[in-house]
Amino acid sequence: MSHTGSVLCLNLLLFLHVVAHFRNNAQQQWPVPYRRVDSRPAADYFCEALFPFCPTGDGDGRIPSMRDGDVISVYRLQTPVWEFKYGDLLGKLHIMHDAIGFSSSETGSNFTVEWYELFQLGNCTFPHIRPEEYAPFWCNQGAACFFGGIEDLHWSQNGTLEKIGEITGNQFNDMAQWVQDDNETGIYYETWTVRSDPSPNATVWFESYDCSQFVHRTYRKLTELGAKLSSKSQTNYTKIYLFSGEPTYLGNDSSIFGQPALKNLAGDIRTFYHTFRPHQTFVDFAVSLLEAYEKVVLEKSFYLYYNFEYWHLPMKPPYIQISYEEVPLP
């Protein structure tokens, strides 16, 4: 081969290497985008809530219309998770629930809108391992709930009830339609935010999709509609972090649990989630804690279910962290 031919061949190889590099990078986006659906499916009859979802409101997130010229006050609402049952106990750990309140100046009516798990946090974080089904069974839907009134004591006693702005009735109606669209297409709850490390410049592998994220999305939508929002206090929100190296994509239910060649992987995923199963005795729970420590800390391994697909996380110290951090209003 001539010198010119060798140079051309080398340039071609370098070009193909660069193209492959960019193609591989383009194939995976970090953080992995949350996957929306065309419409919300019905929940499976197997999934049961310890406390009924949206017991006094509209579980489909439907919101009544306001007169265009009405002036609607907007309230930032925050309280410890399960405050109605445990008071400020989880608040001491900065595990908080977020919502938004509205008050009509024309009618004097108050409203609350929030987004949370249909079947409680545990079901949204870990699946059920059912003997009759090889694949783990998830009850991880979350949804918007709209109901009349703002329970002042519930929000203010151990949390936050603060007016942060005003909007017109027309802006409220546009927001209400957006909430229904958002609720119809964003259907599953995600507890974890997964990052490469705790530093400010860390890579975010996966974002959570929870009550606070709904509040942030709604604030951004109100701002797009022309609202001016401001707070006199620091606007902090709960984040539950996992820390890992770059995740590895594994596949979905059919590609993992329907393939004999992957039975070892399928069995390992089932064993991992069996550790976190609900309704354990005290002795079983103590054993499960040791098993979880062995798997996550000693073996540095975690299986994440995101977008109806499984990922393997090579865990890194500090492994898990609950953070209560500021997210400014838009």
From TrEMBL:
<dbReference type="GO" id="GO:0008474">
    <property type="term" value="F:palmitoyl-(protein) hydrolase activity"/>
</dbReference>
<comment type="similarity">
    <text>Belongs to the CLN5 family.</text>
</comment>
<dbReference type="InterPro" id="IPR026138">
    <property type="entry name" value="CLN5"/>
</dbReference>
<protein>
    <recommendedName>
        <fullName>Bis(monoacylglycero)phosphate synthase CLN5</fullName>
    </recommendedName>
</protein>
<comment type="function">
    <text>Catalyzes the synthesis of bis(monoacylglycero)phosphate (BMP) via transacylation of 2 molecules of lysophosphatidylglycerol (LPG). BMP also known as lysobisphosphatidic acid plays a key role in the formation of intraluminal vesicles and in maintaining intracellular cholesterol homeostasis. Can use only LPG as the exclusive lysophospholipid acyl donor for base exchange and displays BMP synthase activity towards various LPGs (LPG 14:0, LPG 16:0, LPG 18:0, LPG 18:1) with a higher preference for longer chain lengths.</text>
</comment>
<keyword id="KW-0732">Signal</keyword>
<dbReference type="GO" id="GO:0005765">
    <property type="term" value="C:lysosomal membrane"/>
</dbReference>
<comment type="function">
    <text>Exhibits palmitoyl protein thioesterase (S-depalmitoylation) activity in vitro and most likely plays a role in protein S-depalmitoylation.</text>
</comment>
<feature type="signal peptide">
    <location>
        <begin position="1"/>
        <end position="21"/>
    </location>
</feature>
<dbReference type="GO" id="GO:0007040">
    <property type="term" value="P:lysosome organization"/>
</dbReference>
<keyword id="KW-0325">Glycoprotein</keyword>
<dbReference type="GO" id="GO:0016798">
    <property type="term" value="F:hydrolase activity, acting on glycosyl bonds"/>
</dbReference>
<dbReference type="Pfam" id="PF15014">
    <property type="entry name" value="CLN5"/>
</dbReference>
